[in-house]
From TrEMBL:
Pfam families: Hydrolase_4 (PF12146). This is Serine aminopeptidase S33 domain-containing protein. GO terms for molecular function: carboxylic ester hydrolase activity. Gene3D superfamilies: alpha/beta hydrolase. PANTHER family: ESTERASE ESTD. Residues 44-264 form the Serine aminopeptidase S33 domain. SUPFAM superfamilies: alpha/beta-Hydrolases. InterPro entries: AB_hydrolase_Est10, AB_hydrolase_fold, Hydrolase_4. It comes from Amphibacillus marinus.
């Protein structure tokens, strides 16, 4: 059981609509702020349901908001950076801090949301714990090359095709960095548009690039370096991965995050038959993941 309270957050160029789910019958409680996966910007997205139900049942409040430009929130998502999204989360935390019943605030970021969460934790002194789920330790550019290779492999294409497709992705990235001319890259894309592998490689739709790189969200994201945030993060951190994740280089990410958090309070969990969104084959969201998450959080609810 939980009690829901609507909240409005004013940020510099947007108004964010959120909901605070409170554990029933508690006068004080900690809160976990949920930060969004790239394609799950609305608080009503199905994935978030298990968090608000599971966490509030365990004595933890949950706050989730519609990301800027999504759901009931205003503002522009298309050209904002991870730093802009972190500013939004910091504004949400500042709003939650005003509520006397909230005794601590932590973050849960899923996929891209883990990058945002780590940015917030590195900048926000009020964050008491950090949870990163299915979050790559490599840059978005490297992550998407990995995802494209996985997609092509699953579709049955040869290693030669995979190399050609990922080289094409690298050309697109070089255009966004200002290293190649639009006409040259677009010509290379159009030359391969009719190939049956094109749709599996996460390449620009219809082989079309924006006239200006700043008109695309990719320009603001591709070279973000996730590990840099951990120079200043000291709070307890939990990293969770599913080994059937086709979007994240799991073993590389675990290795890099472990090296970066060495000497800090960091816990790593991975699940053999679990995918990017913690689904376990046909059984829905993994029960072991949920159980382990609650166990890790339980000292924080006391």
């Amino acid at each position: 059981m939980n009690v829901a309270e609507a909240m409005l957050i004013n940020v510099k160029d947007a108004v964010l609509m959120g909901t605070l789910y409170k554990p029933a019958n508690l006068t004080t409680y900690p809160v976990t702020v949920i930060l969004h996966a790239a394609n799950l910007g609305e608080r009503k997205s199905k994935f978030y349901v298990h968090l608000r139900e599971m966490l509030t049942s365990s004595g933890m409040g949950v706050f989730i908001y519609d990301r800027r430009g999504s759901g009931e929130s205003t503002g522009t998502f298309k050209t904002c950076s991870f730093y802009d999204l972190a500013d939004d989360a910091l504004a949400a935390i500042a709003m939650l801090k005003k509520k006397e019943e909230i005794k601590a605030i932590g973050l849960y970021g899923i996929s891209q949301g883990g990058w945002i969460a780590s940015l917030v934790a590195s900048r926000g002194k009020d964050v008491t714990f950090l949870i990163m789920v299915s979050t790559p330790a490599v840059s978005p550019a490297k992550q998407m090359i990995y995802a494209a290779a996985c997609s092509l492999t699953e579709a049955g294409f040869s290693e030669k095709v995979i190399q050609e497709a990922t080289s094409l992705r690298e050309m697109v990235d070089r255009y966004f960095r200002g290293h190649l001319e639009k006409e040259d890259v677009q010509a290379a894309l159009k030359k391969r548009l009719a190939e049956d592998w094109y749709a599996h490689a996460y390449l620009p739709l219809n082989a079309t690039l924006p006239a200006k790189v700043t008109e695309s969200k990719w320009y603001y994201e591709l070279d973000f370096q996730p590990l840099d945030c951990f120079n200043t993060i000291t709070v307890p951190s939990l990293f969770i991965f599913g080994e059937k994740d086709i979007y994240v280089p799991v073993q590389v990410s675990i290795k890099l995050f472990k090296e970066t958090t060495k000497g800090k309070e960091a816990t790593f969990l991975s699940y053999l038959d679990v995918d990017h969104f913690m689904n376990e084959d046909l059984n829905g969201i993994s029960r072991m993941y949920q159980s382990d998450l609650i166990a890790w959080l339980s000292p924080l609810t006391i």
